[in-house]
Each structure stands twice: as C-alpha cells, then as structure tokens.
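hey m, so remember when u said the tokens were messed up on ur end? i reran from scratch. heres the input so u can diff it against urs
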Amino acid sequence: MTSPIVRFAPSPTGRIHIGNARVALFNYLFVTMHHGRFILRFDDTDFARSTEEFAGSIEIDLAWLGVVPDAIFRQSERIALYEAAAAKLREEGRLYPCYETQDELEKRRKMQQARGLPPVYDRAALRLSDAERAKLEAEGRRPHWRFKLAPGVVEWNDLIRGPVHIDCAALSDPVLIREDGSFLYTLPSVADDIDMKITHVIRGEDHVTNTAVQLQLFAALAPQAPPPAFAHHNLLIGASGEGLSKRTGSLSIASLREEGYEALAVAALATLTGSSDNVQAVRTLAQLGRHFDLAHVSRNPARFDPGDLATLTHRTLALFEFEDVRERLAALDVVGHKAEPLWRAARGNLSTFEDILKWWRVVEGEIAPVREDTEFLAQAAALLPQEPWDETTWSAWVGDVKTATGRKGKALFHPLRLALTGEESGPELAALLPLIGRMTAIARLAG
C-alpha cells in the first residue's frame, strides 16, 4: 500500500461527541499504522451555524485524544476551488438549475408516495424552457442547483462492508448549491478529496448512499484519477439505543474529559466497541493501533455504555508508568522524590487521575486520622523502628505489634490503616509507610 492520506471533516456547528471521535480515531489509527497523513478539514460552508469557537473546541478535543493532524484546512477559505468545480459540471450539462420551493417539492413527494411511486425528484426543471426560467427569475425565484446522476448501478468494494451496489435510479439528483449560492457538503467534499489526493475515506455507514453520488462526482470532475477507497463502519449508539448528536451534546468529548475519564480509555472504547476485538486498556495510541483492523469491525450497531468508561479508566491508569504521567503530576504539584514511588504505589487504586491528590496528602500533607483504639495505637507507635525505612519496614513493624498485643488479621491491620491514612482501603501500606515517615506516623498514631 502506498502511504495513505485520509481526512476527518467535521462541521464546526457544535462540540464533537464520541461517535465523531470514533470516525477521527479510525482514520488516525489507520494512517498511523500505515505511515500516512491525517488531514483535519473543517466543513464550514454553513456560514450561519459554523463558528471559530466550535472549530477550536474540536481541535482541543482531538488533541486530548492524541489525534494530531498533519494539516488543517477550512472549506470556507477554498470557495474558488468549488466554484471552478461547479463551472466544469455546468459546462458538461451535469449541474442544472431548479426553481421549486421546499413546499412545492414536499407536495410533489407526497403525491408520488400516494401513487405508490418512490419520492425521487422527477427532473421537472430540465423540461423548463428558457422563457419559463426567465419568468421564474423575474418573479424573484433564485435557483438551487442539482447534479444530474448518470443512470445505472454504482459499485465499489467497501473495506468494511465488502461489495456494495447502489442503483442510482432510486436516488434523487442531489442539490449541490443552495438558492443563496452557498455549497452543501457533497461538492466541496469531492473537490477537496481530489485536490488533497485523499486515498481512503473512512466514515460512518450513514454515508453509504452518499458514496454512490460522490463516486459519480469523482468520475465527472477527475475522470483520469482513481477515486479513494471507501470504508463505512457501524455507528455508535447510546446505552439505551439512542443516536448521538452534536446538537444535544450527548456524550460529548468535552463532557467526558470534564468527568475525569482518561483519554486513552475513551479512545479504546470508542474504537474497539462494535468489533471482534476485546475492549482493553492501553498505555498508548500506538498500542491501540496495533489492535485496530478495519476487517474486524462488525456490521451491527455498536452500543456505547459510558458506565464502561469508569472501569476502563481505572485499568488504564494502572498501566501508566511514572514517565507517562510525570508532567501531569507536576501540574498538580506532585513533585519531588516521593512522586515516583507514590505513583507506583497508588496507580492501581485510582478511579480518576486527580485521585492521586488524596494519596499525595496522605504522604506529604495533612489528613484527619481515624483513631479507633487509642491504647492500641499508642503501643504500635512505641514500636515503630528508627529510620531509614524501606518496603520491608511495614512487615517487620506489624510483626512486632502482633507479638506485643496478640492482635492479628483485621483487628491488627485495620486500625493502623485508618490512623495512618484516614481511609478504609487503599494502596499497600508497605509502600506508603516509608513515604509517610516516622515523625508523621507517630503523630497520626499517638495524636
């Protein structure tokens, strides 16, 4: 395979959700594993709804997931390219003006359905004479422009779905340009894919029919160039079977980040859900890429349960080495010689990354010790050995306390944990005790 070039083309009309992230990750992991290029292309020709704020938030969300574009484009800055493509289609008789209003088109569709006919546009605009068009324009009608589909079946070998056949007789000629002269998604997408030499289009299965139209556009605009290969994956749905939408903010990447889920847990669940691969925690995106294969993607809808993110975040944090999180710890002021041993001790006990602060206070700050049996704790404090301490100190000390007091099991260990950490459970005290230190331990045990 030559080095692939892919694109992720969101509309900056809202915050991206986990379904959008799935598309971005599929594309990014594909080119990462095949040493290609990933283009972020903002479909912002809807000037009324597209904003720079949403474009910026999409870049932030992708960066959080670890998706780094090789190039960024805005379709709003490339209008001349689309106008040239439209002019070529007009010259070839493939783009024609239509004057029907939405109400007129809706009435026509209902009449067709009532007669048992498919609601396909009947190309009435092609039968208008020059005089009739001039009359409509004199009345203030402004045309929208449709692409005239060639008859026949469009076929391609989908990298996920296998052989696909779409009969264009069942499709209406798509509108490419609105009455106000602005472009809909279809024409700019194909013109950009040709110009940017996109080799693979990986996107949701809701675009399968669009692909038949776009393949005809590729043939009309660049007849000598091969079109991209297409892969249409199953869609993520919510835990209750509902669809996802940028407009409702359902499962937005921003909200998942704010709830404390790990980016790699989100990426793994978004990518591996709905495939034959087991969802598992990963330490890096490169590791996730090694599990990713388009051939493993199922044809069935992929149900995304945010409840699974909590477990996967916990497992992901447990995989991280200190070097993976050094900068994140420093941002929380978890620094110094205790930072690394604390991370190793606590990482398996974290629900979210910021839970490390609780254990940082245990070893480096102030806590509220829980003293259930002050006499026993005073005995234990008196038996604390002199420093230096290491991870064998805990075992030796509780052995002495057991001998002196006759306690064992929970009656021995539980009061010591409560006094030393203020918590019912947590990391191994063999690792925490040397970090707490003798003076602090005596103060917490004896008060």
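this time it looks ok to me. The longest strand covers residues 37-42. if urs says something different then somethings off w ur setup not the seq
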